[in-house]
């Protein structure tokens, strides 16, 4: 099973995920990133911090970029 790394980019700051997780597909990796982004945005709202900005950069073990999941894409405001 492939390993995916969920690095976080906020403006000029890059936080590397040193562990990653094993998932069956890139689609599942995107679903995982979206769920985690929802939790991050919810926590920011609870603490009064800005909820926008930041994104997961999902990468494989060989460093290939699979997807970028902006935190704001995880919530729907209508």
TrEMBL record:
Pfam families: DUF6894. InterPro entries: DUF6894. It comes from Rhizobium aouanii. This is DUF6894 domain-containing protein. Residues 4-72 form the DUF6894 domain.
């Amino acid at each position: 099973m492939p390993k995916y790394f969920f690095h976080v980019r906020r403006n000029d700051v890059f936080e590397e995920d040193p562990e990653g997780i094993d998932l069956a597909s890139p689609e599942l990796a995107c679903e995982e990133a979206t769920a985690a982004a929802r939790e991050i945005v919810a926590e920011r709202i609870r603490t009064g911090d800005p909820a926008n900005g930041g994104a997961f950069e999902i990468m494989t073990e060989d460093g290939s970029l699979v997807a970028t999941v902006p935190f704001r894409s995880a919530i729907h405001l209508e």
